[in-house]
Design goal:
By secondary structure, the protein is of the alpha+beta class. About 10% of the residues lie in helices and about 15% in strands.
Length: about 140
């Protein structure tokens, strides 16, 4: 589950001015049709019960905090707050990390990865869009 959807105290503590949606009415930006709720996570990345996304990630300093699945021919299934689901084909080959059955911990630096930005744009939005981005 997207860490910004009904996130617990840990998410609230590191959200750095990004919305943590706890009610459907709060999901405005991104819109419910653009805000992902669930996704298929990479097996080596499952650790904490939610999918951590680095809100505030800016170009070119992109990185995964956790990895999305790519085992089905380079795609991942996501569901969105409006109830629809999509299959996302990853565009950056670095997103296609093979399953190694070794626990992935920590940020996975991938400068200029458009897939990271795609996920970030669909995770949350800044409470102050005029402020310069902060990277957690």
């Amino acid at each position: 589950m997207n860490c910004y959807m009904n996130g617990g105290a840990g998410v609230l503590a590191y959200s750095y001015g990004w919305y943590v949606y706890q009610k459907m009415a709060e999901i405005v930006n991104p819109s419910p049709s653009q805000a992902f709720v669930f996704l298929d996570e990479h097996e080596d990345s499952i650790t904490i019960g939610y999918f951590a996304v680095g809100a505030g990630t800016i170009w070119p300093d992109t990185r995964w905090l956790q990895l999305p699945a790519s085992r089905h021919r380079g795609v991942c299934t996501l569901s969105f707050a409006d109830g629809h689901a999509e299959i996302k084909k990853w565009r950056d080959a670095r997103t296609l990390v093979p399953v190694k059955r070794v626990l992935f911990l920590g940020a996975f630096q991938q400068p200029q990865n458009k897939d990271v930005l795609w996920m970030t744009e669909r995770a949350s939005s800044s409470k102050n869009p005029d402020a310069p981005p902060q990277t957690p």
